From TrEMBL:
Protein name, per record: Esterase
Coiled-coil segments: none
Superkingdom of the organism of origin: Bacteria
Length: 575
């Protein structure tokens, strides 16, 4: 009997201790922001910074804010949400392990829409609202005003969500810059609702005065552009502060440098001897990311076909583009670098050359610091008696600031297990993976443990490993890609992207019948995103994408354009 009482007391003590340490966080939704709230993900964010809202401070580096996340479905109006204490967090994984102390705390809800796709799957995802699929800034998402709290074990806390992010103000057309919003029939059919593509279009000098002139098209690929970037018709603002600091480049006055470069580009654009062409920046934000990677995908739909066969012909027809494959060129950096090469590879007859700077992994044997075909775990290098975390971000000296596990656990906390974070590893997974049985992207690896699924890796290889695809299909692809492939990367790229470029160069240099006849170049000790100019620092060359490759493009046009193309000013006259 005494023994029974002893164990009963021990069990009670254990329960009491657990209860004392169990926090209770209640999230109220103000009636003013309950409209169209049904499904979503609630984030609980902790910060020690009083100068910025917690939602803006989640990152891969050591100064990140703390975030915990949980999904919810079928919200009932006027009900509160009780935050699940077992929700996964980053960088601290469990709420009970968060250190006691003073924090600014904010609750945030990312709303999910329901999509009934043409493939038969019904999925719930956050829809882009014109902001480029940035959850912390997405219109209609709702959040609480940050409150300062002395956090303790067993905390009882009530937060009220009563703020809604306003709609995005769209830019206005100017003489040179036009904005296109285009309904894609292909994407609409796939997603089961109206889906749109957009573009910011820069028209050449003399466009209105020369209605019979038609122009080559330069397609600048990259992350979501709210307006055309790097073009400014007035000199830099003389009142700009000289002490604004760019942490990325370690220099002061970078805003003035950017404005001066944009103004210098305008001066070139209108000069009488400058070539005449159209530049477009494509807007293809989607429920998974700020762009689609410009290819067809089981999870995102036929974005490649929609851009190449719907959007681009529409723009060329509207703005007098020449409208033939020899007159189209692709360029971009990072995500845009991968897209430029991928689009050239998948649509070789539709484009006449690509300039891919610091591209996302183009050979999955070097998927950042992972070999997807040989490694068993994405997060660790494992030996018999120890394992080491794989790096994911470094500086030019090799100093590591984030691991692959760090970045993926951040995404797991923000977006959960269905690729909904809107971040880098999740969009690669969404683009490259087959759809799983639940309709969401099939994971390339377990998001928590890092264990790689070799069957998914095999699917990636056959469908999106650009080096592998070129190598396998060179007999038919080679003649169509000859002279069109140009790749540039810093040899100390922050994300280890140069490793995949090395492997791709090794293949390209041994090509025959034909030899690829392009360029692969590296920047010495250059970080992300070096784009091919060894004479300038990257903080300048990155601002010159629209003029950087014109000499090479001009040579390509001499070799491939028809006789009636004006090689001096790059126009084709039609009666």
């Amino acid at each position: 009997m005494k023994q029974f009482i002893y164990y009963a007391l021990m069990l009670f003590a254990s329960w009491a201790c657990t209860s004392i340490n169990e926090s209770q966080i209640e999230i109220e939704i103000d009636e003013s922001v309950q409209a169209d709230l049904k499904d979503g993900r609630v984030l609980l964010i902790f910060s020690t910074d009083s100068t910025s809202e917690p939602r803006f401070g989640i990152s891969d580096n050591v100064n990140t804010n703390q975030v915990f996340g949980m999904d919810f479905e079928n919200y009932e109006a006027s009900k509160h949400i009780l935050f699940d204490n077992e929700s996964f967090g980053y960088p601290v994984e469990n709420l009970k392990d968060l250190e006691e102390g003073f924090y600014y705390i904010q609750a945030f809800i990312q709303k999910h829409d329901t999509f009934k796709r043409a493939d038969g799957h019904t999925v719930k995802l956050p829809m882009d609202q014109g902001e480029g699929r940035q959850w912390a800034r997405a219109p209609k998402n709702i959040y609480s005003t940050p409150v300062k709290v002395e956090w303790k074990k067993g905390q009882k806390l009530s937060l009220t969500i009563d703020n809604s992010i306003p709609e995005v103000t769209q830019p206005e057309d100017t003489k040179y810059i036009k904005h296109i919003k285009f309904k894609s029939e292909k994407l609409t059919e796939f997603w089961g609702r109206d889906m749109f593509l957009g573009a910011n279009v820069l028209l050449p000098e003399g466009y209105d005065e020369n209605p019979n002139e038609y122009y080559p098209l330069m397609i600048s690929h990259g992350h979501f552009p709210s307006d055309f970037s790097g073009f400014r018709t007035i000199p830099p603002d003389p009142n700009l502060a000289e002490d604004d600091y760019s942490a990325r480049f370690g220099i002061y006055g970078y805003e003035k440098i950017q404005q001066q470069e944009a103004y210098d580009f305008y001066q070139k654009w209108i000069s009488p001897d400058f070539q005449r062409f159209i530049i477009i920046e494509i807007q293809h934000a989607n429920p998974y990311y700020d762009d689609s990677y410009a290819v067809n995908s089981a999870n995102l739909g036929p974005y490649g076909d929609a851009i190449t066969y719907e959007l681009i012909p529409h723009i060329e027809e509207k703005f007098r583009g020449i409208g033939e494959g020899w007159s189209r060129f692709l360029y971009g950096g990072s995500t845009g670098g991968w897209e430029a090469l991928a689009v050239q590879v998948f649509y070789p007859d539709e484009y006449n050359g690509c300039f891919a700077a610091c591209p996302d992994p183009i050979d999955f044997r070097a998927y950042t610091s992972i070999n997807l075909y040989e490694d068993q775990n994405a997060y660790y290098q494992e030996g018999e008696f120890r394992k080491t975390l794989r790096p994911s971000h470094r500086d030019y000296l090799g100093h590591i600031s984030a691991t692959v596990q760090d970045m993926n656990h951040k995404e797991l906390a923000i977006g959960g297990t269905k690729s909904r974070s809107g971040d880098q590893f999740n969009i690669w997974q969404a683009v490259y993976s087959p759809a799983g049985e639940d309709g969401y992207p099939k994971p390339i690896w377990d998001k928590y443990s890092g264990e790689i699924d070799p069957q998914v890796a095999s699917y990636w290889k056959e469908n999106y490993d650009l080096r592998y695809i070129m190598e396998q299909d060179w007999d038919t692809l080679g003649p169509k890609l000859e002279g069109k492939v140009n790749i540039f990367c810093g040899d100390m790229d922050n994300y280890y992207l140069n490793n995949a470029v090395y492997l791709t160069e090794e293949f390209l240099e041994q090509t025959q019948n034909p030899y690829y006849a392009g360029t692969v170049a590296y920047g010495d000790r250059a970080e992300h995103c070096w784009n091919g100019d060894p004479t300038l620092p990257n903080y300048i060359s990155r601002l010159r994408y629209n003029t950087l490759y014109l000499e090479e493009i001009g040579e390509r046009l001499k070799d491939t354009a028809p006789a009636n193309f004006n090689q001096y000013n790059w126009t084709l006259t039609k009666n």
